[in-house]
Write a structure and sequence with these properties.
Belongs to the KduI family. The chain has 282 residues and is mostly beta strands. The protein has 3 helices and 24 strands. It is globular and about 55 Å long.
Length: 282
């Protein structure tokens, strides 16, 4: 089994505004997350969020000492919590001997203090794809599976503005207690392509996205940067983006798609947003 770990250092907006397209991708994108039988991870300096993709093949995958070394502890969740959503086939997670069945679009929260974590696919021909976020924690809260039915459903947008979508809040204070991690899934309706418009900022929290269910010839244009000086990234299927607190985060695709969003930072208020008037975007 191979564990690949990248690092994303914090970048000031004045630096990002001078970057080329390749430099923006290097600093803010995670281009490869899901490889059969491997762990691919990125440790970010934005609220110390750890992002990872695990796709078990014929054998289970266990989190080893490599990730613990990155966060400076004896095991990964010694001082952390972990959330995930499965965007692949049926899977199973075993945490300190407790088995959690995690189907497609199910989420799982693991609390601080869990030492041994392994992942497996129910059918290697249709492997699970566990998209993982982990943030620092100060207390232990109960682990549990969060099904799509357990999540809070929000119906947003309108067909007239091409942004009709369903937003599901999986890891949220009204669903279960966590230290700081928030996590959910947004799916655009057929014919809608815009997400998160009007754009907003939240200087108190960072955010990360993974876009998925994007056909091979399609893509999403992810807008980032200060409202007065936006940049863009071309995102393909199952690629992730780190969004700094100073950056807007919205986008439009060549067709409908889905994405998982996650946040860490000073508060857990999903509505803590500083909206940007559309006329101010440049």
């Amino acid at each position: 089994m191979t564990t690949t770990i990248e690092t994303r250092h914090a970048v000031h907006y004045s630096q990002s505004e001078r970057m080329t397209s390749a430099e923006l991708r290097e600093n803010f994108m995670i281009e490869r997350l899901f490889v059969a039988g491997e762990i691919h991870a990125a440790y970010t300096h934005y609220d110390r969020m750890l992002i990872a993709g695990i796709m078990p093949a014929s054998s289970p995958i266990q989190i080893g000492p490599e990730l613990a070394k990155v966060v400076g502890t004896d095991f990964l969740l010694e001082r952390r919590e972990l959330g995930l959503i499965n965007i692949g086939g049926k899977g199973r997670v075993t945490a300190d001997g407790t088995v959690y069945d995690v189907d497609f679009q199910d989420g799982l929260y693991l609390g601080m203090g869990i030492k041994d974590i392994s992942f497996e696919s129910a059918d290697p021909a249709a492997p699970a794809k566990f998209y993982i976020n982990s943030a620092p924690a100060h207390a232990n809260f109960p682990s549990r599976v969060i099904s799509k039915a357990d999540a809070i459903e929000n119906n947003l947008g309108d067909q007239l503005t091409c942004n009709k979508r369903k937003l599901y809040q999986y890891i949220h204070p009204k669903v279960l207690p966590t230290c700081q991690l928030l996590m959910g899934l947004t799916r655009l309706e057929p014919g809608s392509v815009w997400n998160t418009m009007p754009a907003h900022l939240h200087d108190r929290r960072m955010e990360a996205y993974v876009y998925f269910e994007i056909p091979e010839e399609a893509f999403v244009v992810h807008l980032m940067g200060r409202p007065q000086a936006t940049n863009h990234l071309i995102i393909r299927n199952e690629q992730a983006v780190v969004s700094p607190p100073w950056s807007i985060h919205c986008g439009s695709g060549t067709g409908s798609y889905a994405f998982i969003w996650s946040m860490a930072g000073d508060n857990q208020s999903f509505t803590d947003m500083d909206f940007v008037p559309m006329k101010e975007l440049k």
